[in-house]
Every structure is written in C-alpha cells, then in structure tokens.
Amino acid sequence: MQKVSILANDRVFVLTGAGVSAESGIQTFRDSDGLWAGYRIEDVCTPDAWEASPARVWDFYSARREAAFKAEPNPGHFALAELEQWLGERFFLCTQNVDDLHERAGSERLVHMHGELAMARCEDDCGQPPVSDRTIYKSLTAVGRCSCGARMRPHIVFFGEMPLEMGKIQREIDRSTLMMVIGTSGSVYPAANFVRWARQKGARTVYIGPEAPQNAESFSEIVLGKAGQVLPGLFQVEG
Ligand code: OAD
C-alpha cells in the first residue's frame, strides 16, 4: 500500500474539495452526477443570481443545508483529524467545502475558504460578523434581516467574490513543506493555484482522489483512490 511519509520537520498544508465529502453522501459539483449537472452556476452562485432572485439562491442553499446536516463524517475526515493530532501546529487544513464534516470529525486548525453552510451574513457587508443559521428556508419571507435592515444571505463565497482568509492561507502555504490536495478537480481558482505556489517554494505536492485533477502536472505524486478508503493508513509520520 502506498504511503506518504511525513518527516520530523515537515509542515503540512492540506487542501480539500467536494470529493472528501462524497462518501458521506454529499454531491460533488463537476462529477457526472454532480450539482452543476442539475443547476447553472449563474442561477444560484453569483452576485447577479442573488440580485435577480434571493429566493432561488436560498432555495439552493437550503437544499445544500438539508443534505449536509444529515451527513456524517467518513473515514477520510477522521484520518485528517488524526493527522492533526499527531502534527499539532505543523498541520493546517484549508477546505473549499461548506459543510462542517471536518470539524465534526475533530479538525480544529482549519479555514473554510468558500464559506460555511451553517452561517448567514448581511448582504450589504455592513460590518456585522456572520451569524449561525441552520434554517431550511421554505420561503424568502422567513429569511431574517441584519440589524442594518439588509437581507441576510448565505455565508457562501459566490463566483466572482474573493475567497475568505486568503492572507492566512498564503502564509501557511509559504511555510509548508508538504502540500496534500484531496478530492478537488483543480478547476476553481485561486484554490487550483495553491499547489503551484507551494511547489515554487520547494514543497512536495501530493494529490489524492479517484482520478487525476486538471492541474495534475503540478503534483510530484498522485495517489489514486477514494478519500475514505485511501486516507486511513496513508500517512507514515516519522520523528
Ligand atoms: P468538483 O466537483 O469540481 O471536484 C470533485 C473532485 O472530487 C473530482 O476531481 C472527483 O474526482 C473527486 N472525487 C469524487 N469522489 C471522491 C472520493 N470519494 N474521494 C476523493 N475524491 C473524490 O469539486 P471541487 O473541486 O471541490 O465553490 O469544487 C471547487 C469549488 O467549485 C467548490 O468549492 C464550489 C464549486 O463550485 C463554490 O461554490 C464557490
């Protein structure tokens, strides 16, 4: 069985995508049975979509909430939480996923660069922080208002918006010596560029997933397989 060695002085940066939650029953986006086969991004996940129909956008994200809240973490999520236990502050996890399965598996040092399903925020970015919101909305009239009066929107980064926590992510990439990318097609930027940034700094770069991603040429190693099957037992922590 293939192993990824983690050396005593390694700092590990992990980027995950929808594939890591696939075995938990959450649809990916670009696989043949993925979400973008049934919806158009420009109808549900852009600032213009929100402007045109907040009801349609909330419908879409309410359905995503329903699916994510009943899902459970799979062995892939648990393997990453265990790796963090071993490495402590030498580990950093950046997920593009908006579900909370990494946290529910025990991960702590993580950022959600594309937002979080279980939160909402002011549509006008008035300065109030995002708030917890787990409601499955059946109609727009049930959606609350910010204290400034604007409507609350999903705490999701729409296409065309700046991902969250980019300063922290950049710092963590700059000091990583091993980047592992798991279950992402490598087609959405800037996340698809992280491997190049890490490689330019001299890091080893490993991809894990059932098929090679679009940016496969940037990886020094590709481990083919499903995250939930491959991740447990993959890491050999030395030192
Ligand atoms: P994609 O749907 O583009 O890619 C999912 C990847 O997961 C594919 O490369 C699959 O081969 C792989 N995969 C499928 N099953 C897997 C398994 N069991 N284990 C490991 N990998 C598996 O999803 P992302 O790359 O995450 O953004 O998409 C990136 C962003 O595009 C998302 O965060 C979302 C989306 O539109 C926003 O909504 C802003």
The gist of it:
By secondary structure, the protein is α/β, with parallel strands linked by helices. About 30% of the residues lie in helices and about 20% in strands. The radius of gyration is 18 Å and the shape is globular.
CATH topology description of the largest domain: Rossmann fold
Q: Give the full name of the CATH homologous superfamily of the largest domain.
A: TPP-binding domain
- Following the backbone from N to C, one meets helices and strands in this order, namely EEHHHHHEHEEEEHEHEEHE
**Associated small molecules:** 2'-O-acetyl adenosine-5-diphosphoribose
Classify the oligomer. Answer: single chain
Fraction of helical residues? 25-40%
Q: Please count the beta strands (DSSP E, at least 2 residues each).
A: 11
Write down the domain tally.
2
Main-sheet strand order equals 4-3-2-8-9-10
- Tell me the number of helical segments per DSSP (H or I, 4 or more residues long): 9
Radius of gyration: 18 Å
Q: What keywords describe this structure?
A:
239 residues, alpha/beta, Rossmann fold, SIR2/SIRT2 'Small Domain', 6-stranded parallel sheet
Topology:
Blueprint lengths: L3 E3 L5 E5 L2 H4 L18 H4 L2 H6 L1 H17 L4 H13 L3 E5 L5 H5 L4 E3 L2 E8 L8 E2 L19 E5 L9 H10 L2 E5 L11 H7 L3 E6 L11 E4 L2 H4 L4 E3 L2
Parallel strand pairs: 1-11, 2-3, 2-8, 3-4, 8-9, 9-10
Antiparallel strand pairs: 5-6, 5-7
Bound molecules: 2'-O-acetyl adenosine-5-diphosphoribose.
2'-O-acetyl adenosine-5-diphosphoribose binds next to helix 1.
